[in-house]
């Protein structure tokens, strides 16, 4: 049974690839992170109306995006986990951030409305370590005086696939909790001590929605779109913050984007009174030596348009656009992307 | 009577017929060889893909429960256990119920109901597995969480010894839910196979048994089932193969956690669910290789099940003196 399934999948995948190649002339192809999928699809819709050029973006997760760009099956890959300088070098990749957003804990507890519950990093880490197992645990009760918490077991939901959201989330948990840092670690996929796994941001959202007394973590746009109950957080400065655009922007404000190769700055647990502690940027990966120069030009045109015109759409979904000075630096980086003839596929006067 | 006598009426020589038979023979042989080649190819590529993992971890890969992408430590035990446990749950439920349906349809069902029931079963068998998965997650899992699991925890959970099987919070999804969904998926498969098999029993055999004054139970127990035992075991093993490899529906409702738990209410994972979930996301070569090694384990497990079935059939034949 397994074998037939595998061959069938391969056949379908082959057919899809073949048809994807056929329409490539008109559409930009990209794959990767699910975190920015809501904003990329919003941009793609408007861009298609304006220019006729469509975007075929497969939200398969950051790990998949990195793999697909390395094997050159897409024009761009997308990842929430920035690659390091040596990894970029090794695969001759250019990396740049497109938008920033926030990861929010979402809960499904009877009678609790969005923003009613407050958590801090340590409590969140202990819940995901399986050390806090009941909603009326003293640690949660202490943070939420006056909120009626049920005497029910916490059902923990995490991602089952490798994901940049998980990378940023575990990065945050490791930065606030020693046990997490030493025993579990930071990665796109980790060995979860408790809980059940769901595929993609959408999968976590669906599972939390279906499971009573559960907690999960998703990108803020997914929490909004699914009308989910998100929680507030206590940030590094000890202040209570709600997941809102200005809180994500506060985290990004002091980031030194030029400090890391490929703008690979991680925004978790930044200082500041108004800072949302689980803020993250999402990145695009493209080859410096483009196999199909024209396709790369089309992709860069799309991102150029998005930086200039995509701000409103981003704000609607509570993503934060990149600051203008960073965009200027990014466009300078684009000069490194060269076609087969060795000339740059992008110039400032496009 | 030969097949050619009417057709050629002896006018043409028999030579072209012999030739066409030869061509037909080699064509069917080629078709059979293709299957073997594909099987060998799949096996070889699985072994090649899994080689780095087995070189790194050795045979203990099979009984290591760790699955940690951060430290690149992988072991197959948790998904292997999940595969076996969910399949056992599915078989325990689906085999008796499926046989019951089949016997009802062939023996005791009123004639008016026979066709609609048969069609309903075939329709159930035709539903794609992802539909079972979605229905399982959005309809069945909340039902399990609200009613079935709390009931199991409150009652059987306090019974000594088997109590650990029903411990823990009611997640709704988990091993038991996955096993039940699997049972639903293979139930129509078993029922329709078994019905077709029961219909091959010669009416004469049945009628003479009834004529001797046997009851319905006796006829089915001593005449019908022994007569088709071989085919029945084959059909059940096919369903078991289907349960072992089922992917999409299980992925939705099993909880995808690489853990071994004493409780069947806890989340777990199966081999095919783990591969489906993690394959596109496996970032390091050893991670990918470990997933392919899981595939190889499933391949061998399925092979063992089918081989065991063959062996059992052989034993049965010897015993019955056939």
UniProtKB/TrEMBL annotation, chain A:
The keyword Iron does not apply. InterPro entries: ABC_phos-bd_PstS, PBP_domain, Phosphate-bind_PstS. Keywords: Phosphate transport, Signal, Transport. The keyword Magnesium does not apply. Pfam families: PBP_like_2. Residues 20-307 form the PBP domain. Residues 1-25 form the signal peptide. The complex is composed of two ATP-binding proteins (PstB), two transmembrane proteins (PstC and PstA) and a solute-binding protein (PstS). Belongs to the PstS family. Part of the ABC transporter complex PstSACB involved in phosphate import. This is Phosphate-binding protein PstS. It comes from Thioclava electrotropha. The lineage of its organism: Bacteria, Pseudomonadati, Pseudomonadota, Alphaproteobacteria, Rhodobacterales. The gene is pstS.
UniProtKB/TrEMBL annotation, chain B:
PROSITE patterns: ABC_TM1 (PS50928). Keywords: Cell inner membrane, Cell membrane, Membrane, Phosphate transport, Transmembrane, Transmembrane helix, Transport. Residues 80-309 form the ABC transmembrane type-1 domain. InterPro entries: MetI-like (IPR000515), MetI-like_sf (IPR035906), Phosphate_PstC (IPR011864), Phosphate_Transport_Permease (IPR051124). The chain crosses the membrane at residues 29-54, 74-105, 117-141, 173-194, 286-309. It is a multi-pass membrane protein. It is found in: Cell inner membrane; Cell membrane. Its main location: membrane. The keyword ATP-binding does not apply. The keyword Cell cycle does not apply. It holds the Pfam family BPD_transp_1. Belongs to the binding-protein-dependent transport system permease family. CysTW subfamily. Part of the binding-protein-dependent transport system for phosphate; probably responsible for the translocation of the substrate across the membrane. This is Phosphate transport system permease protein. It comes from Thioclava electrotropha.
């Amino acid at each position: 049974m397994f074998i037939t399934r595998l061959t069938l999948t391969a056949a379908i995948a082959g057919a899809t690839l073949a048809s994807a190649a056929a329409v490539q002339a008109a559409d930009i192809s990209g794959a990767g992170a699910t975190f920015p999928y809501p904003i990329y699809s919003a941009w793609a819709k408007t861009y298609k109306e304006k220019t006729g050029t469509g975007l075929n973006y497969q939200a398969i997760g950051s790990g998949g995006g990195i793999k697909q760009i390395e094997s050159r099956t897409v024009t761009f890959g997308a990842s929430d986990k920035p690659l390091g300088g040596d990894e970029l070098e090794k695969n001759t990749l250019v990396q740049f951030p497109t938008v920033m957003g926030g990861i929010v804990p979402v809960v499904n507890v009877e009678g609790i409305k969005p923003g009613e519950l407050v958590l801090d990093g340590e409590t969140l880490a202990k819940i995901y370590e399986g050390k806090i197992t009941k909603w009326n645990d003293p640690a949660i009760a202490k943070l939420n005086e006056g909120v009626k918490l049920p005497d029910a077991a916490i059902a923990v939901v995490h991602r089952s696939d490798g994901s940049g959201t998980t990378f940023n989330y575990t990065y945050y948990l490791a930065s606030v909790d020693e046990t997490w840092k030493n025993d579990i670690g930071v990665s796109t996929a980790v060995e979860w001590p408790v809980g059940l796994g769901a595929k993609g941001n959408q999968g976590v959202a669906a599972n939390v929605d279906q499971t009573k007394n559960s907690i999960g973590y998703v990108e803020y746009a997914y929490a909004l779109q699914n009308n989910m109950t998100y929680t507030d957080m206590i940030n590094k400065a000890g202040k209570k913050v709600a997941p809102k655009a200005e809180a994500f922007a506060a985290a990004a404000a002091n980031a030194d984007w030029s400090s890391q190769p490929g703008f690979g700055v991680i925004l978790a647990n930044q200082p500041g009174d108004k800072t949302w502690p689980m803020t993250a940027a999402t990145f695009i990966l493209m080859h410096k030596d483009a196999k199909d120069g024209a396709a790369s030009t089309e992709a860069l045109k799309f991102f150029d348009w998005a930086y200039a015109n995509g701000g409103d759409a981003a704000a609607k979904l509570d993503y934060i656009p990149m600051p203008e000075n960073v965009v200027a630096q990014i466009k300078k980086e684009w000069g490194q992307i060269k076609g087969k003839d060795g000339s740059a596929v992008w110039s400032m006067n496009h | 009577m030969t097949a050619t006598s009417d057709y050629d009426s002896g006018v043409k020589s028999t030579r072209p017929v012999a030739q066409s038979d030869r061509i037909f023979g080699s064509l069917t042989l080629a078709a059979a060889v293709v299957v073997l080649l594909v099987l060998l190819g799949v096996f070889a590529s699985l072994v090649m893909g899994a080689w780095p993992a087995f070189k790194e971890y050795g045979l203990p890969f099979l009984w290591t429960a760790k699955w940690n992408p951060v430290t690149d430590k992988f072991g197959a035990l948790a998904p292997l256990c999940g595969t076996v446990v969910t399949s056992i749950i599915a078989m325990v439920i689906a085999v008796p119920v499926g046989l019951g349906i089949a016997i009802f349809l062939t023996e005791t069902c009123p004639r008016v109901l026979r066709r609609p029931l048969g069609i309903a079963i075939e329709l159930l068998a035709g539903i794609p597995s992802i539909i079972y998965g979605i229905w399982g997650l959005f309809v069945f899992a909340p039902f399990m969480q609200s009613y079935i699991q709390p009931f199991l925890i409150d009652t059987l959970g306090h019974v000594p010894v088997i109590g650990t099987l029903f411990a823990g919070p009611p997640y709704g999804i988990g091993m038991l839910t996955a096993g039940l969904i699997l049972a639903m998926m293979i139930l129509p498969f078993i029922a329709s196979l078994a019905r077709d098999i029961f219909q091959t029993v010669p009416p004469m055999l049945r009628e003479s048994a009834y004529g001797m004054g046997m009851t319905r139970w006796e006829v089915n127990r001593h005449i019908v089932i022994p007569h088709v035992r071989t085919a029945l075991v084959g059909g059940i093993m096919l369903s078991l193969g289907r349960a072992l490899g089922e992917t999409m529906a299980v992925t939705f409702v099993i909880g995808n956690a690489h853990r071994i738990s004493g409780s069947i209410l806890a989340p777990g994972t199966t081999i095919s669910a783990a591969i489906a979930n993690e394959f596109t996301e496996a970032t390091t070569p050893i991670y990918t290789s470990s997933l392919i090694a899981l595939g190889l384990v499933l391949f061998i497990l399925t092979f063992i099940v089918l081989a065991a079935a063959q062996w059992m059939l052989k034993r049965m034949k010897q015993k019955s003196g056939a």
